[in-house]
Amino acid sequence: MIRVLFADDHEMVRIGVSAYLSSQPDIEIVAEASDGGPAVDLALELRPDIILMDLVMKEMDGIEATRRIIEEWPEAKIIIVTSFLDDEKVYPALEAGATSYMLKTSKAEEIAKAIRSTYEGQSVLEPQVTGKIMTKMREKPIEHLHDQLTDREMEILLLIAQGKSNQEIADELFIALKTVKVHVSNILGKLEVQDRTQAVIYAFKHNLVE
């Protein structure tokens, strides 16, 4: 049996969806909650297989409830079931740790199918949600590893690319040799390379130096 906790502040919604889900041979509603706070408490106490989470509730919304559950129980599988497709709802819910995102306009059998798929480790998203995510990804600028470097680290990387030793870099920048070594270590870690040679190759490959 797939044990399900259902959190929604609309009693009629809970009654209707729960009635259908309870009729399924492989799904059991173990608890219901009318707000985010009780949902968090029940989730951490009962550890259900799936949590159906409404987004807009009076005291604690579903985003905050999802965040608190995931903080205490990272393995929790939470399906958002809501009427909202606004960006300010979709992205925060997914970033908080929700596994799947469904609309209340979905048929009960579709929600049951989403429960089974999420239980098996899949992520189920409404087509409109998938479209929003793809659009945001296309709009997001490409990030490079060297974007993580501080101005000082970038300066030292360019000096490394010029073939300067740690001592020469320390003398040129008027900083301690030990400080240079710390910066070099940070640079290698951020660029995900093993040594100075690979760091130089990275710098040339990404046109950081001529």
UniProtKB/TrEMBL annotation:
GO terms for molecular function: DNA binding. One of its GO terms (biological process) is phosphorelay signal transduction system. Residues 142-207 form the HTH luxR-type domain. InterPro entries: CheY-like_superfamily, NreC/VraR/RcsB-like_REC, Sig_transdc_resp-reg_C-effctor, Sig_transdc_resp-reg_receiver, Tscrpt_reg_LuxR_C, WalR-like. Residues 3-119 form the Response regulatory domain. CDD domains: LuxR_C_like, REC_NarL-like. One of its GO terms (cellular component) is cytoplasm. Keywords: DNA-binding, Phosphoprotein, Transcription, Transcription regulation. It comes from the Bacteria. It holds the Pfam family GerE. The keyword Cytoplasm does not apply. The keyword Transcription applies. The modification 4-aspartylphosphate is found at residue 54. Its main location: cytoplasm. It is found in: Cytoplasm. PANTHER family: TRANSCRIPTIONAL REGULATORY PROTEIN YDFI (PTHR43214:SF37), TWO-COMPONENT RESPONSE REGULATOR (PTHR43214). This is DNA-binding response regulator. It comes from Ornithinibacillus halotolerans. The lineage of its organism: Bacteria, Bacillati, Bacillota, Bacilli, Bacillales.
